[in-house]
Structures are given as structure tokens and as C-alpha cells.
Amino acid sequence: MSFTSLSNRSSYPLLKRPLLTVVITAFIATLSVTGCSSPESNDSEPAEANTENPTADAASNIANNDAVSAQTISVDTVKGKVDLAINPSPFVVYDMSLLQDLAALDVAVDGMPGNLRLDNLHAKTQPEPKTVGTVFEPDLEALNAMKPQAILVGSRMAEKYEELSSIAPTLDMTIDTANIYDSSKQRLHDLGALFGKSDEAAKLQGDIDTLIEETKTVTQDKGKGLVIMVNGNKMSAFGDKSRYGFIHSVLGVPMTDNQIADAPHGQPVSFEYLQKANPDWLFVLDRSAAIGEDGAGAKAVLDNPLVAQTNAWRKNQVVYLSPDSYLAFGGYYQWIKDLTTIKNAFAAAK
Predict the structure, then answer these.
(1) Is 140 buried (19+), middle (13-18) or exposed (0-12) by CB count in 10 A?
(2) pLDDT at residue 12, rounded to an integer
(3) How far from the centroid of its chain's Cα atoms is residue 33's Cα?
(4) How many Å from the N-terminal Cα to the C-terminal Cα in the chain?
(5) 84 torsion bin: left (phi>0), alpha (psi -120 to 50), beta (else)
(6) What are phi and psi of 145, to 5 degrees?
(7) For position 45, what pLDDT does the model report?
(8) How far apart are the C-alpha atoms of 1 and 321, rounded to whole Å?
């Protein structure tokens, strides 16, 4: 059995989550022919199968995933290595950033959660997928009826991994928030390999990388930044190891406060904190708006005498991040949306 590696293991920090490594395996079948074998039986295959089987790149998986390659793929996920057929069908996805990547790759999904708020989660010619629960809770009855060949999960559904694994091969492709660029890059690469879209995945990553470089050229020497989430009347700040850390670690915007605690929901802060920190740039995620909650929006909450004293507010250097940055962080469209917003804001700065 021969193995051809499609991953770069050095591109993902080993002390975080394991590299999403993809290895394609070509089968060589050695079959014995007995004297009673029928010429029509499978036992009449030649002793050595053709190792140049068509890859999933030649399979029809645009808007439908009916063609399943004879090859298999091994994905080294957060939970360990998972082996499955290339271009599995049907398959289910329980993560919005995964859905964004698959939509950008134009891979149709057979089952997904219902009531999702983003409008960039379907392939261009996507048939209506079956609803198989929510992003937090799977519908086991619907899953068992579908009999999926693969289930892809991310952060919100990861805790259901064992339960889902009893139904079908399950890939926990949760992004490492402390290294979101390399992690999301590796995952896009692996999805391309899994669904026969490696060339398309490389092109999409090129879109992201080009936009990163363009954004970095305008963020240099423009002052320090602070990322906050506004949730109703509550606020929290995020550092460079968070899901929003790419603003500092990738785009090179210096942190206003290097002592922000690393926490999943950020470090709680007040208006007084913002006044004292005095960021030159304020990056804002409106969580209430992202999840559709009623109440005052982030702009109204931040319209405060103390915030008004900051450089960011006085210079109109407040950048509002997309809902995707909360719901689908690390997804293709999240990268494109937020990089474009940040680039345009810095380019317009005086």
C-alpha cells in the first residue's frame, strides 16, 4: 500500500491541536481465482487493480456528490485520525465556518442544522439540504434515517463527538483560535482534498492571502488597536490568542493592552477601561446583532461620554466586524468580509 502526503505538518503548531493531515491511499487488490469461479463474479478481477484510479477531483461533486471515488482519505483531526472514502455521500455538517468553506468550494451538503442566520452557507447550486438538528444538538432520528457516510463538526458541536461517531465517521475540525490563520488554512486544504477540490481550495486560500497582504500594507504605523465584543450592555476585550487575534498576529496591528486575559468569552471591561486604554482603533463585534437578539446595538451602547474621549472614537476609527466573525470565525467568507472591512477603514484613515 502506497501513501502520498497532501499536508504540510510543519504549518500547524504541535502543542495546540493536531495538524489536519490528509493522506490519500491507493488500493492494490490481489485476488485469487479458483477453478469454480464464475467469469461474471468479482473474483474474476485481475490480480493487481489499476493504481491510477480516477481521483475525487474527477468526480462530480458540484451541487451533487453522487460519485464516490474508490480511494480513501485519512484525516488527522482534533480527535485523532479518521479514515473514510473520498467524496463521501451523503454527509452532514454541524459548523458554520465549515459550511462557508464548503459553499465557497461549491460542494453540496446533504444535511445541516436549521435556523442558521448567515446567508453564505450553501453552494451556488445547492439543493435544499435536510435539517438534522441545530449547531448545538443533533437530531439523531434524522441522522439515522439519512445514514450519512461522514459527519463534520466544529467547536459548538464538538462535545457530541462520541455520540455522532456511533452513527458515522465523524471529523472534529475545530479551528485553533490561538492560531486561526494556519488552522483555517490547513482545514480549507483538507476539505479540498476530501471533496476533490484541491485546486479550488488553493485558489480560495490565494484570495485570502492576497487580501491579507493588501491589508497589512495599510495597517502599518497607524496606531494600536483593541478588539471588544458588545453583548447588550456588557463588554469584553480580546487579545491576540482569541478568535479575533488575527487582527494583531496576522495583520500586525499592535495591541493597546498586552495584559488582556485569554478567555473564551473575553475579559470583561467597562467604559472606564476603554477611556484609560485609549485605543487608536476599536474593533467591535456586536454579538446581540449577530445572534438576532433584540436590544440596543453596539453603536448605541458605545455612544458614551467616556468612549468619546478615546482616539478611536474622535478619529472615527471604530471598525465593526461582521457577524461571521462570531458565528463562522475562520470560514472563507468571514476572512473576505472582515479583511475587506479592515483594509478599507485603514485606507481611509488620515
Answers:
(1) middle
(2) 34
(3) 48
(4) 61
(5) beta
(6) -70, -35
(7) 33
(8) 48
In this predicted structure, what is the pLDDT of residue 231? 93
CA distances from 185 to 12, 161, 180, 209 (A): 9, 23, 8, 10
Three-class SS state of 188: helix
CA 137 to chain centre: 19
**pLDDT confidence of residue 322:** 97
Point out which residues pair with 66 in neighbouring strands. none
Length of the chain: 350
Instruction: Give all domains of the chain, ordered by start, each with its CATH number.
Output: 2-196 (3.40.50.1980), 220-348 (3.40.50.1980)
pLDDT for res 1: 32
156-177 per-position pLDDT tens digit: 899 999 999 999 999 999 999 8
Cell numbers for 273: 477601561
Q: What pLDDT does residue 304 have? A: 94
Q: Lay out the sheet containing 91-94: strands in order across.
A: 130-131, 111-112, 91-94, 150-153, 170-172
Q: In which residue ranges of the chain is pLDDT below 50?
A: 1-70
Q: Where does 75-117 have alpha helices with state H? A: 96-104
The whole-number pLDDT of residue 345 equals: 98
